[in-house]
């Protein structure tokens, strides 16, 4: 059984002040097995992020189904799942990393990473130790660990965002341009974590404009223009 399967997925958005409905993406079909990493490529506006946000259920799909093989619920259609089920999956099974940081105000970066682990049932001692290891790995200056991330640079916020998501070792990890504002050294740190997660069985779906980052990392590349899997190098020509 596939870990995730999208069948005839589609999403529309209504522009209320114009009274118009726009089709963001339609007729998407793909599946991935446990431990696979799928990269999604396509020009801006082709619906790449819409797919990830619909899997995470930030967006509610309009057509089709998104079948996920949950450890807790078994085979579940994310398009039809209850809010309670989605909240559980986000906490314990499905992680999401974007280039933007949206966290609780007046909470330090250390506490944010610790909270992610405590939610998984880890002890305070384990949460503290693994949070420090994650923050160290992504080279967040120790001087920033006990400060609020609202003052961080874009790159610092992104590294914290990645640390919060990956420290939980989710079954399914969605990566929406996670290296957008990182320098080359930080990108290599992300590659290391992705490889480690894959080795341990995490399934991943990612969007990267940095094609070199994807090279040798993805098992498959899904081309939004052709609506099919292509050879990794073939997918490059559709990026913009």
TrEMBL record:
Record's subcellular location: Cell membrane
- Cited Pfam families: ABC_tran
What domain of life is recorded for the organism?
A: Bacteria
Q: How does it sit in the membrane?
A: Peripheral membrane protein
Name of the protein in its database record: Phosphonate C-P lyase system protein PhnL
Arranged from A to Z, the UniProt key words for this protein are: ATP-binding, Cell membrane, Lyase, Membrane, Nucleotide-binding, Transport
Looking up PANTHER family in the UniProt record yields: AMINO ACID IMPORT ATP-BINDING PROTEIN, GLUTAMATE_ASPARTATE IMPORT ATP-BINDING PROTEIN GLTL
Offer an example of a GO molecular function term for this protein: lyase activity
Q: Which family does it belong to?
A: Belongs to the ABC transporter superfamily.
Which residue numbers delimit the ABC transporter domain? 4-240
């Amino acid at each position: 059984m596939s870990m995730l399967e999208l069948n005839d997925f589609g999403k529309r958005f209504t522009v209320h002040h114009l009274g118009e409905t726009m089709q963001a993406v339609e007729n998407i079909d793909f599946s991935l097995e446990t431990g696979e990493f799928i990269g999604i490529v396509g020009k801006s506006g082709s619906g790449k992020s819409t797919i990830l946000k619909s899997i995470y259920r930030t967006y509610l799909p309009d057509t089709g189904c998104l079948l996920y093989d949950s450890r807790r619920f078994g085979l579940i259609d994310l398009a039809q799942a209850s809010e309670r089920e989605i909240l559980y999956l986000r906490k314990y099974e499905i992680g999401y990393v974007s280039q933007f940081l949206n966290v609780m105000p007046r909470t330090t970066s250390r506490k944010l990473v610790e909270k992610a682990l405590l939610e998984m049932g880890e002890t305070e001692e384990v949460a503290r130790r693994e949070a420090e290891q994650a923050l160290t790995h992504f080279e967040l200056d120790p001087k920033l660990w006990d400060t609020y991330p609202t003052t961080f640079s874009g790159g610092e916020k992104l590294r914290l965002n990645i640390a919060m998501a990956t420290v939980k070792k989710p079954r399914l990890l969605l990566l929406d341009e996670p290296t957008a504002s990182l320098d080359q050294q930080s990108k290599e740190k992300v590659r290391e974590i992705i490889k480690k997660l894959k080795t341990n069985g995490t399934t991943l779906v990612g969007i990267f404009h940095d094609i070199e980052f994807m090279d040798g990392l993805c098992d498959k590349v899904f081309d939004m223009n052709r609506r099919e899997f292509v050879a990794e190098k073939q997918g490059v020509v559709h990026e913009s």
